[in-house]
Amino acid sequence: MIKVFVLLLCIPLGVFLLMLYQKPNVQQENLLNPLPQNKPFLSVTPNPIQETEVHTIDGTMKVLMEKRTTKENAQIYTFLVSDISGKNKRTLFTKTASVSSTMILSPNSWSPDGKYLFIRENNKDSFTIFVFKASGNAFLEGQQYIDVVPLFTKRKTTDRVSDVTGWDAPGLLHVKTVLDSNVKGPSYWFDISSQVFLQLAS
């Protein structure tokens, strides 16, 4: 009878010891397999960069226009100047434009001597001509660029700028005009160094 009683006591004790022995080490398992942590969700939208480049006449320098489009459909333009190989790259200008605006690099953006270049921005009812020093240095009074059209408008004449076609000589930008009646007006040279408009004979 006593043997049976002892046997009955040993069976539960053995089961308890077996369960205790086989109980996993929770701390060790957590170290080996840590619980996943909440990480911020990052949404990446593919946004290819559109590139346009124009070289100087002698082929030693280039200006590169990079265009990015945001989710709000704004256009971010970055203009960089470098050696033709892409070395010594520096940012010349950055501008965020609306959907209705487009920035353009003309094939003859560079002045013949490679000292200046101009960038055009087309808006819905107007356009802007930015003239820069290729070196990135400022003009007089710390101007980053020369905004050509407002300078012409300040002259208060009956003609207005209709187009800027390019360079006729180092430092001389060719400006076309129309009269108030939309009849073709005289042409001008815009002298970069003096920022003066010189009317041409024809």
What does this structure look like?
This protein is α+β, with helices and mostly antiparallel strands. It has one domain (50-199). Helices cover 17% and strands 39% of the residues. It is built from three helices and twelve strands. The protein has helices at residues 2-22, 26-32, 148-153; strands spanning 50-55, 61-69, 75-83, 90-97, 102-104, 116-122, 127-133, 146-147, 159-169, 172-179, 188-191, 196-199. A four-stranded antiparallel sheet has the order 1-2-3-4, with no helix packed on it. A four-stranded antiparallel sheet has the order 5-6-7-8. The chain is globular. It starts with a helix and ends with a strand.
> Span from first to last CA?
133 Å
Helical fraction equals: 10-25%
Count of β-strands: 12
Which sequence of SSEs, written as H and E, runs from N to C?
A: HHEEEEEEEEHEEEE
Q: How many distinct domains?
A: 1
Low-confidence stretches: 1-13, 23-45
- Overall pLDDT score: 81
Q: In what range is the share of β-strand residues?
A: 35-45%
User: Strand count, sense and closure of the main sheet?
Assistant: 4 strands, antiparallel
Helical run tally: 3
Q: Helix/strand-derived class? A: alpha+beta
Rg from Cα: 36 Å
Tag the structure with descriptive keywords:
alpha+beta; four-stranded antiparallel sheet; 12 strands; about 15% helix; disordered N terminus
Topology:
Layout: H1 2-22, H2 26-32, E1 50-55, E2 61-69, E3 75-83, E4 90-97, E5 102-104, E6 116-122, E7 127-133, E8 146-147, H3 148-153, E9 159-169, E10 172-179, E11 188-191, E12 196-199
Antiparallel strand pairs: 1-2, 2-3, 3-4, 5-6, 6-7, 7-8, 9-10, 10-11, 11-12
